[in-house]
Design brief:
About 70% of the residues lie in helices and about 0% in strands.
Length: about 160
């Protein structure tokens, strides 16, 4: 898949994600302060974003490792949008309903680059020469792979 197609899919997922975020934000805003509403809506939409980007944008298998690394893709986004919401609402006296939409626009390019790097990164590096790892070597001697999964012992093949 080309980077251009990934960018288009990223944008489509971004629209869905922004809609999800904004709907959650407005729902929570009726019950909580705007910053708390922003943080909770951000976390909910980020979880959905992970699965959509994994499957639709980059066509990669979601894994626990990628899921745990995925918040790094949104770290810059979170800082930019949270700072932007604060500056727009408290400093520029902009309405709290529209401030998150404006702040989010500034973070999109950074989020694309970081998410692409993390979600397309292989889970294991197999082309490197193995390093000395006593636990891995012991696991292999006991008929397990280094992750603890059972595998056939070479002598039984």
């Amino acid at each position: 898949m080309t980077v251009r197609l990934q960018m288009v899919r990223f944008a489509l997922v971004g629209v869905v994600n922004t809609g999800t975020y904004y709907a959650c934000y407005l729902f929570l805003l009726n019950r909580l302060p705007y910053v708390v509403s922003h943080v909770l809506a951000f976390l909910l939409s980020m979880t959905g974003s992970f699965f959509l980007h994994s499957r639709f944008t980059y066509r990669t298998r979601p894994t626990w490792r990628k899921f745990l690394l995925f918040p790094l893709t949104n770290a810059a986004n979170f800082v930019i949008t949270t700072s932007g919401v604060y500056l727009l609402v408290d400093v520029a006296h902009f309405g709290s309903r529209y401030a998150p939409l404006i702040a989010a626009a500034a973070a999109v390019p950074i989020t694309f680059v970081v998410s692409r790097t993390i979600l397309l990164r292989p889970d294991r590096v197999r082309d490197r020469a193995p390093e000395f790892d006593p636990e891995r070597d012991q696991a292999q001697d006991q008929g397990r792979d280094p992750d603890g999964d059972l595998r056939p012992h070479p002598s039984s093949l």
